[in-house]
Amino acid sequence: MSGRGIRVDLPDQPLPLIPPVLLRAASFTTLEYRPALTVIVDVDASGDLAKAQLRRSRIRLSARVSPSENQNAVPSDVVGLVSAFR
User: Fold this and answer.
1) Which pLDDT value is given to residue 56?
2) Given a cut of 50, is residue 1 above it in pLDDT?
3) pLDDT at 57 over 90
């Protein structure tokens, strides 16, 4: 099981596991800026972690995309770099 949790859909309606008011408050939207945490990572030429920072930020989505659209938009060299840190 993944660390993301589960979603249950009944035949005639969804069954939310998180109250809708909480889900709306925690979701990113194209309509307004939302609080977020930004991780800034610097790596050296050999790919080793040189510096990492965690900062509070505010973001607003410029578009809504599906997870597969998002994955296809990431260049393969970035995907390889991220995989190296897992």
Assistant:
1) 97
2) no
3) yes
Domain ranges of the chain: 29-84
Task: Flag whether pLDDT at 51 surpasses 90.
Answer: yes
CA distance 66 to 68: 5
Q: How far apart are alpha carbons 7 and 1 in whole angstroms?
A: 12
Token reading at 11: 């035949």
Q: What dihedral angle (degrees, nearest 10) is formed by the CA atoms of 54, 56, 62, 68? A: 40
8 Å CB contact between 60 and 30: yes
What is the C-alpha separation between 33 and 62, in angstroms, rounded? 11
Per-position DSSP letters for 14-82, written without gaps between them: EE-SS-HHHHHHHS--SSS-EEEEEEEEEE-TTS-EEEEEEEEEEE--S----HHHHHHHS-HHHHHHH
